[in-house]
Amino acid sequence: MKRLTPRALLLGLAAPLGALVFAAGLCAVILLVTSHSPADTVDAMSTAAQRPRTLVNSLNTATTYYLAAVAVAVGFKMKLFNIGVDGQYRLAAMLSATLAGAAFMEGLPSFLRITMTIVAAMLVGAAWSGLAALLKVTRGVSEVISTIMLNAIATYLVSYLLNPARLAENVPGSNNISTRPINEGGQVTGITVEGSSSKIFGLLFLALAVGFLYWFVLSRTRFGFELKATGLSESAAVASGVSVKKMVVLSMLISGAIAGLVGMPQLLGSSYSYALDFPAGIGFTGIAVALLGRNHPVGMAVAALLWGFLDNTANSLDVAGIPREIVLIMQGVIVLSVVIAYELVRRYRVAAEQREVGRALGRTKALEEVSA
Amino acid sequence: MSTEPSQTAGSDPAIAVELSGITKRFPGVIANSDVNIAVRAGTVHALVGENGAGKSTLMKILYGMQRPDEGTIAVGGHPVVFTSPADAIKAGIGMVHQHFMLADNLTVLENVVLGGEPRSGIGLDFAAARDRIREISDNYGLNIDPDDLVDDLGVGQRQRVEILKVLYRGARTLILDEPTAVLVPQEVDELFGNLRELKAEGLTILFISHKLDEVLSVADEITVMRRGTTVASVLPKDVTARKLAELMVGSALPVPELRESTVTDRPILEVRGLSVTSPDGRRVLDDVSFTIHAGEVLGIAGVEGNGQAELVEALMGIRQLASGSVRLAGTDISKTSTKDRREAGMGYIPEDRHRQGVLLEATLWENRILGHQTRSPNARGPLLDRAGARADTRRIVEEYDVRTPSIEVHASALSGGNQQKLIVGREMSGSPVVLIASHPTRGVDVGAQAAIWDHVRNARANQLAVLLISADLEELIGMSDTVTVILRGRLAGQYDPATVTPQELGSAMTGAGSEG
Fold it and tell me: What's the confidence (pLDDT) of residue A358?
């Protein structure tokens, strides 16, 4: 990964591409078995891909997926599984939407309002994941269990608060209820694309900045080094003077804060309020995207784009009479096969490197303890 | 030794288990090469050797956890091939692991039947199992009540439950992997009583250990392993602990020795009344006090598991002190963090480099940063200095003769000896004031060993204080200005390396010595 030799690059691409081809092949078989035409499917998807609107929507979906993936990846880097990104972003979006829509905010300058909204979302996300971190370092509760449970609690908390008696109001002319809509001063303007009715989320740049920061912190800072070291070997990190408890708390807080951002592009760029139909489940998609992108800032971006594209072209399949669920199957197969492919490539890489070192030095390893 | 097992043995009991020509290679490493052992039925057979001599790999092969690349296993004279522990159990071979595998919140009965629950129709037949357990317990004097909760049992009792579990599954040959490592002396005596009882009932026991006094007291026959192969088979009456140790270690080693004394009167590391308690409440270090001066190497001899690991971790701030104090160059560091201690100039060569010394899946220069991530040349403020770390890694690779084609390869690609040289080079960087070195030359080839000794000597001449822990007595005596012995968590006696012999140290290490 460190050296961009042609072989290293090839090895890095082999796994995701292999998984993609395998998934496409399997989907073609499934389509054939259920007497649909794979060619028609590809045709329908590529027709959709030529519509600017599909592309804009794909990019927008990818923006939120990317933020969710980075949130998950921060934990993954130190073998911490924040399954709670989903609850964190929903609670954060709901509460920050309430703040952004509040009457007193309307007098403030636009930049300040947006900043306050985003900071509030980050704080709520961090607080919610912080609970899991606290349970882990004080009581040894697995963060997997606690974040899953916190997801459920977040769901109930949001539905409790999203009630006309509390933080929400009825949406005129529908059965929907939502937080007070954010007026223009609190919105983030999108980028207009010719031929598309939807705009590119202005907070796409926020996602890019988060991706850059993620890369910078992990590869260039002491904190990032300690985080990775803890993930690679906790015992070695402890012996090197890393306080693992501190790292658990910090990385969970950062993960939660990024999770808080997940709902922002949608909230400030399109929905302008948190309603019953606010997108849910992005946190789990984020796990898949992080896996596919191997926690790499660019890899996750590619994976998020792929996922966003698949999601948005699925709509066009219905029109062509092909069950759109084929996209879900494809996504599932990609994730499963990529996990296997990465492990195979990793083993190959380790063995190849050992051989290479052995060749370069002209001898094999000395006899030593092996505790396999 | 390796005669054909005779089925009609009269006075000479049949061979219960025979391993012939066992060879096992791991990528780039030979863990076992041409190992031959014959264990006679109804005996306690000890397998001794240093850590890394290949004992554990061999036992994993016998228990079906690993498959040998070459060689054969015969049980009761019939060749067998084990592909899993289940096969070994079927052939009557059971293993009691060093670390118990019991569920605390279940009873003895439930633990024993776990995975092989006795059925009667659709229900479980616990009554029959309970009777069997009682019967086994009575027959072999294990003194276990099937209805006790495992959580309530002591370490010795838990071990007997493990033994009972293996017997319950019909084992006739028991492998005990360092069974005394977790026991206190009284429990060891009890265990040996049990083993004699099992033997009297015709069972065969394969006993793995490196505690020589124990081996001599309980074994009927002893096989010695060194560097992956069996080097000797002896009877306890024919050997002494010293002779066994020589067989274990071999003798073709470069001679460690110090030149003139560089010891000053400036105390660097002062340890007073240091005590450490293990999580289960046992006192693993008891009232340890010593002082190391600038330019002095203090060697600590001891049989593994007598508190060395705890001492080192307590000094590095990885483990909390129950009481006592540690002062570094006059400053009390008893409560400071590992990071602060490292920044204050404590270098650390850990006993288990894979656990504490390197990140296997990180490059060499990233490993150079490990443990020194807060300091130059690796960091500038909160940012890493990647160029600085890389440059300094090249220096270490050069000066310490780390054999590698590049500093960009992962540490896992290097041999253990080269990983160790990298660690030594790293810990010697940044002018440390004290070096805590645990087995610094373990698993390292002869040339690298001599090089590491050279570096320690030079650093000592430059006023470095060194705490040296080693299982290699020659190394300890040759490299130390003062030698002390650790036994059951206490320091027992000081020795002048100029006059002490390995034999004297050896007997002090096992507590058998009469000298004080």
Answer: 66
Comma-separated ranges of CATH 1.10.3470 domains in chain A: 64-313
Which of A3, A369, A371 lies at the smallest CB-CB distance from B408? Answer: A3
Q: To probe the interface with A, which of B58, B304, B356 has the most A CB atoms within 10 Å? A: B356
Question: C-alpha distances in angstroms, B324 versus A243, B314, B434?
Answer: 23, 11, 19
Which residues are within 8 A (CB) of B254 and not within 5 positions of it... i.e. 6 or more apart? B446, B449, B450, B453
Query: Who among B28, B355, B370 is closest to A354 (CB)?
Result: B28
Q: Quick check: B379 pLDDT over 50?
A: yes
Interface probe for B, chosen from A240, A294, A355 (most Cβ of B below 10 Å), is A240
Q: Nearest CA of chain A to the CA of B397: how many Å?
A: 14
Q: Residue A206 and residue A226: Cα distance in Å, rounded?
A: 26
Is the link from the previous residue into B377 a cis peptide, with omega within 30 of 0? yes
Distance (Å) from the C-alpha of residue B48 to the closest C-alpha of chain A? 15
**Domains, chain B, with CATH or none:** 1-92+172-180+198-251 (3.40.50.300), 100-170 (no CATH), 253-345+431-516 (3.40.50.300), 363-430 (no CATH)
Q: What is the pLDDT of residues B94-151, one digit of tens each?
A: 998 877 788 888 889 888 888 766 666 666 778 888 888 899 888 888 888 888 888 8
pTM of the predicted protein model:
0.73
- Return the DSSP state at B124: E
Query: What dotted CATH number matches A64-313?
Result: 1.10.3470
| Chain A contact for B385 (CB, 8 A cutoff) | no
In this prediction the ipTM stands at 0.86
Contacts with B404 from chain A: Cβ below 8 Å? 357, 360-361
Chain B closest-CA separation from residue A119 CA (Å): 24
